Predict the structure of tRNA-uridine aminocarboxypropyltransferase.
Amino acid sequence: MGLSYRTFGFKCPPALAFCRMTHMDSKPRSLNNPFSRSPPREARLSEAGEEGSIITLREWQGWGTTSPVPTIVTRIAEDLKDLEKDMDAQMSFGGNGGKLQGHFKIQEDKKHRATYQALGDSEQKLQFFSARQIACRLLGSRGYLCQKCWLPYEDCMCSRIAPCKLWHGIRFWLYMHPKDFLRQNNTGKLLWQLFGVETASLCLFGISEHEGIMWNAFKLAGKDKVWCLYPNKNAVVESVQEAFDQGSSADLEFTEAMKNGDETLNFVLIDGTWSNSAAMFRRLKDQAKLVWGEEDIRCISLATGASAMHKLRPQPSWDRTCTAAAAIGLLYELQLLPKFSSFGLDKQAEAIEDALVVLLDALTTRRLRMGRSITRKVRHTSDIC
């Protein structure tokens, strides 16, 4: 049976419809608008006191992971606490991305740059960079962001998300860049909100504990059960049909194995900006070479389509979309294949679509309340719902 490709149109209620204006058409925002930025907030290091640790296991796992607290993240958080004592000043965060602010930022910046330069190799530097990003974001978000949806508490959308089960034969791996960790408009977080952290697992780029867990799972599964959803133009890329439509007899054996829970298909979703994703994909290839002896990790291309999030977070082209939209596209395309048609993947894709609309609504409401623009430069308008 041939796979008929289609454009996936994501649900978009009329209340969320955006006028197609460019930045030049929209009214300029006042630079003095007191609501256009998040107010500065102080990190409350003293709140985490379990066994004297700055970041407790409960807090760490509350952000969407099952791993232990990474050692290097704890060490950097402790260094920040020591710097507070030395300076007799409390660190504060604010602005876009919740970055360190004020005099503390200046001193911490000098210290971390010196530490970074003193590190011996690129791997140590990557791990330090990733851990520092994560530690600062976590400390700056404590008491400010909801741990489940990563939105400020006043905008929490958790009550509007209806968790459901993903078919047991699929496991998503959210391979996330540290600069996307705790990012409010990140869409990968929706997958574990819906399906749970065991089915949609967070793996932070450059964090050895996370990457070790993911690759141990890949070793057990075998290379033929691991795919990466990435539009890689420098390698052989398969469509969903090419990857999984193996013929009637093979399909029958596959379906029986899937029904019995004997096999799990692992899909890596690279969750980061497109400028960062190339380095993340290279790291996957390097690790694949160490594990399997060859660096080519199997890539799947999807039929492209518009995501509701393109309104607030435009993409450079239609073969590049947000993380949740990639998961939606994969589930819909798998549903079209006979071997997957009985697993209800289309219903699970619809659940992600619904969650994506909830996130868009929450972000839009917040931006309007804070006096921020909700229009973006129009790209590929013919496909926007």
